[in-house]
Amino acid sequence: xxxxxxxxxxxxxxxxxxxxxxxxxxxxxxxxxxxxxxxxxxxxxxxxxxxxxxxxxxxxxxxxxxxxxxxxxxxxxxxxxxxxxxxxxxxxxxxxxxxxxxxxxxxxxxxxxxxxxxxxxxxxxxxxxxxxxxxxxxxxxxxxxxxxxxxxxxxxxxxxxxxxxxxxxxxxxxxxxxxxxxxxxxxxxxxxxxxxxxxxxxxxxxxxxxxxxxxxxxxxxxxxxxxxxxxxxxxxxxxxxxxxxxxxxxxxxxxxxxxxxxxxxxxxxxxxxxxxxxxxxxxxxxxxxxxxxxxxxxxxxxxxxxxxxxxxxxxxxxxxxxxxxxxxxxxxxxxxxxxxxxxxxxxxxxxxxxxxxxxxxxxxxxxxxxxxxxxxxxxxxxxxxxxxxxx
Length: 391
Known about the structure:
The protein has two helices and 23 strands. The longest helix is centred in the last third of the chain and has 9 residues, at 348-356. By secondary structure, the chain is mainly beta. The strands form six sheets. It has a five-stranded antiparallel β-sheet, with no helix packed on it. A five-stranded antiparallel β-sheet has the order 15-16-23-18-21, with no helix packed on it. Strands 3-4-5-6 form a four-stranded antiparallel β-sheet, with no helix packed on it. It folds into four domains: 12-79, no CATH class; 103-184, Sandwich (Immunoglobulin-like), CATH 2.60.40; 208-334, Jelly Rolls (Sandwich), CATH 2.60.120.260; 348-385, no CATH class. A hairpin with a 7-residue loop joins strand 9 (125-133) and strand 10 (141-145). It has helices at residues 348-356, 377-385; strands at 12-18, 23-30, 45-48, 54-57, 66-69, 75-79, 103-109, 112-118, 125-133, 141-145, 149-152, 160-169, 181-184, 208-211, 216-222, 225-232, 240-249, 254-263, 267-274, 289-291, 296-303, 309-317, 325-334.
């Protein structure tokens, strides 16, 4: 697949050969216009499928291991390994038969534990039963599913669960258990602060402090408040940086990023939730924050429009000025459905907002939780399902 181009590119290609004139004419390729963003410097393969589609294996770790392309150049299917493993060859082969029991895999995400299962080849499956508990070979029924995927959220954090699945056929007969998979649950609940030590009660724990580009500054925790003494801020904000890594951001979720900040004299800082590695895509959207000697609370509400990033970072860039900065009460949470005032809880304050819009019929109402154009008992039900209990 690698071809002699500068810069180098890879593609799946079809040529028509003329054995009389000894010529080869390109008749199809994917991508239609080769690009250096797709370059497999070794291995890889192409397979023409019986349905006319073309399967391409790009081989190297950062590229898909399987891209199935239709004759018109559109993608029919694409996949990669979660950990970016390489693959020497990938083929799609016909298979006829029926598995005797489901096969189960589990995948942990920040906001759920996903179970994927299938009794391959069996067209008589009516639905699946999902069993699980904190001991092996559990017979505790957790859920049922009419499809081959189930997301679980109501699990106890910190506990190790064991999962099995059975298939129930259309006659109501339950088959044997699948393989057993285990996961230790660490689900970030809606409204839970994702920032560790955001109040600096544990000193500098969980935070990374760096100086670069000739900047000089000192960081001290004073009565639970971060105080940054800056003697040379240089001309670049990022030359003085406080950050926390390992923040999981899920596409389409709504987040609230907030903190307290003030300074010894008026100045700008950059506070953002962003990609940890270059180009450091800014997920929270805030370009800069103007701070003054007055103690203020800042809040940025945003929806994660980029692809899910399980290792994002919270950044505070404090360079470009010699004015000292104070930070406290840093928080980032995924707003639960029904959290109308975006305080991380669904409670009487949100109910009060909903009753103010009760039975209104118009688009764009924040209280219209199901998006059907009116505020009614369906929205009240969503609010009740996410009601915050306890303190």
